[in-house]
What we know:
Elements: E1 10-22, E2 27-36, E3 39-44, E4 50-56, E5 61-64, E6 66-68, H1 76-83, E7 87-97, H2 100-110, E8 115-121, H3 122-131, H4 139-142, H5 157-172, E9 178-180, H6 190-202, E10 206-209, H7 222-236, E11 239-242, H8 245-249, H9 253-265, E12 270-274, E13 279-283, H10 291-296, E14 304-306, H11 316-325, E15 330-334, H12 341-351, E16 356-358, H13 388-403, H14 408-423, E17 444-447, E18 468-473, E19 476-480, E20 483-484
Parallel strand pairs: 1-4, 1-5, 6-7, 7-8, 8-9, 9-10, 10-11, 11-12, 12-16
Antiparallel strand pairs: 1-2, 2-3, 5-17, 13-15, 14-15, 17-18, 18-19, 19-20
Amino acid sequence: MSATTTPPPTCDLLVRGGRIIDPETALDQLADVAVTAGRIVAVGPSLPHHGTRTIDATGRVVAPGFIDLHSHAQTIPSARMQACDGVTTALELEAGAGDVAGAVAAASAEGRPINFGYSASWADTRTAILLGTDPGHGFADLSATLGEKAWQGDLTSRQRHTLTGRIAEQLAAGGIGVGMLVGYAPDTALSEFTAVSSVAADFGSGTFTHARNKNPAGPRNVVQAVDELVTAAEQTGAHTHLCHLNSTSLATVDQVTERITRARERSLRVTTEAYPYGAGMTTIGAPFLDPDQLGVVGAQPDQLVVVRTGERPRDAARLRELRAEDPSALVVIHYLDEDDPDDVALLHRSVFFDDTAIASDAISFVDGHGHLLCGDTTLPANAVSHPRSAGTFAKFLRLARETGRVSLVEAVRRCALLPAQILAPHVPAMRSKGRLQVGCDADLVVFDPDQVSDRASYEHPATASVGFDHVLVGGVAVVSDGHLSDNLPGRAVLGGGAR
């Protein structure tokens, strides 16, 4: 009589033999991961599971998918570029959406390769009140008016009441905090910022802020702008997040990080993020790109590059002409010289500052005429954006490897767990992301730690990162064997105020 055996448990997907990294539990060992119905059901060496699909992860790292807190690249082709960079969730939190429910519904209907979500947009709400525009669905809608003075004006008490009421409505609709583009309206009242922070605090949420000033010195400087955020956190109890520490701080990074450290020592919830590039990107009409303002931060007009044409304004007069002709035109601003060791040191002090999340500030790719590339299409080779839109996370992993400033486990923590922890108190979905544990979402990346690297450049930004063999969103392959799939498994991430 033959012996009977118990058949092994089955799962949808079995990832075999990889170096498993879970930064929350400090797990770093060779093991298997079993996935069923979009969730991790087992983690351990030599699991007795049989997978409908199997990934051989020998010689590779298996880690939780990366979470980008700051991505304006909310289109299918741009999100696919981020997927090739290990990103499984990309959130529009700095600019946000004036119509959160509408933005979520539109993205859900079209489909997304990675998870998505939006904050409630202060700037878009202000624009709707002062210009009579319809609330939009994110940065692409908002960018046309960012350079206009009319939306930046003072609000009456009635208008401010309307503003805070509409923001509360967007938080109730699932907004992940409030996106505060204060740097695009630097003359708005501090009391308004505090009032909006109070609304966020009422929802147990926070603000995601482009600080008011970049100036290194003078009566309106970046340190004062950061102090404003800290004061709001102290007075209202709201979580306060400073966007892009690198391009906000520039040469004042030590003073800014000292302020953040002191705030944290007082148990205030002040968090930050950075991207590993010396250049920023925005619309040419932004107030801080006014020629007079550029000089205050030590920049010159020819450090700007108009994305559509490649023009570098030769002088202040030409920059003023370009700002008047099309204030919504995208430009790259080379604040720091990435070939200068001193500038690189400044950049690294931002990127490697304690508990700094990695976030891209990605901008959706456009064609050679400046038109947004959207729909379920493939990016053309000449698509234009900033290289951070394709290479932020791979570049950070490469820098961690080359500099030795942080371990691989810590690098993964900053890309995956830390962003999840920043949001988890007011975003329930984040409590099961950024981790590689039983019961967590099967948002996973499988990559070669020795080869992972960025390839996007300022000249050729639409170049995917390398080294990511597999990227899974809810257990569904978005990248498989290094190649993009057509799958659109991304789901909306909502704030905890959603009714």
